[in-house]
Amino acid sequence: MLAAVLKDFNKLVLEDVPMPKPEPDEVVIRVKACGICATDYKAIKGIRRNVKFPFIAGHEPSGVVSEVGAYVRNFKKGDEVIIQPSAFCGVCPHCRVGNTHYCTNAFTTGGDGVDDVRPGGFAEYMKTTMTSVFHKPKNISFEAAALTEPLSGAWKGVIQYSEMKVGDDVIIIGVGGIGLLCMMVAKAAGAGRLIAIDSSAYARKNALQLGATHAIGTENAIEEVRKIIPGGPDLVVEAAGPIQAVELTRDLRRRGTKWNIFGITTHEKFDLDGGLTHFLEGRMDASFGCNPMSMQKAIMLMERGVVDPGKIVSHTFPLKEIHKAMDVMGQPERNKVVIIP
Q1: Are 172 and 183 contacting, i.e. CB atoms less than 8 angstroms apart?
Q2: Structurally, how many domains does the chain consist of?
Q3: Nearest residue to 310 via CA among 175, 151, 187, 202
């Protein structure tokens, strides 16, 4: 089969590799669509260094079952499916209490965050354990279904962890792909004033088209927010990544503000006034990855027409043009880029 194999940083090679064969509890999937995450791009470009070569990236796939292992009963050849990139053992202490994304025996397909990284979705076929496979409703396109994992992360951060309430005034800092999904979830959940903050005019325009009530730049952002929400926001979600976005999140707090450090993954520090944080009596959350419940919730949102992540797809490329796709990933005016093997 054809796969995009990362041999070294900045050395992505299209080549024939052996077809995957399922173990008894595994499912082989013919990949129909796979989103490109910023972490994939960073690994390919050498910005993210925790990579072992050779590596087949791509952790946002959807597809069709082509073969199942001997123990698999819930899936059969021809089923349309969605793949959760993280797999879990189900028996470690974290799994036993429901925190499967903390699993001490986890592996990931095409992603990162654990030591055991297996081939992902930038290929014609891939395989994973049956517990990481979900049935795709027929009314969801493969392109939209490929964004189930980031949508599930947005739901997990905004709803499960930060417990956004109907009518809350919400700020999303950084409205690239994941920020737009957080914003769309907040909109669907009944946000009151929904403010997108981004340095990019292109991103701000997209945010307004997808439901933001206001969109402002990063210059004088605090003053601009106060004009819109004089009393301050109920929830701030940092979905940008740079440490400056975390600092802005901190500075936008008022008493009772919840804030979710969602986007940053680099090990950088920021100052926090302990006494002020005490008296503001807010709550800081963070969210990474997804779990079976958040995946199922994301599928529900799509199936019922509540959120359509397909609206943020700006470019699609066949697998053989993955190098063009990576060039687009480096451009400012793009949203979600999806590979169609």
Answers
A1: yes
A2: 2
A3: 151
Prediction pTM value:
0.95
Tens digits of per-residue pLDDT, 108-123? 999 998 999 999 999 9
Residues 32 and 121 in one domain: yes
Question: How far is the CA of 26 from the CAs of 68, 74, 82, 109, 274, in angstroms?
Answer: 6, 11, 14, 13, 49
- Cα torsion at 127, 133, 134, 135 (round to 10°)? 40
Tell me the pLDDT tens digit for each residue of 155-196.
999 999 999 999 999 999 999 999 999 999 999 999 999 999
Contact 119, 20 (CB under 8 A): yes
Closest CA to 101 of 149, 169, 31, 33: 149
Range of the domain at 335: 2-150+290-340
- Distance in angstroms (rounded) separating the CA atoms of residues 220 and 199: 11
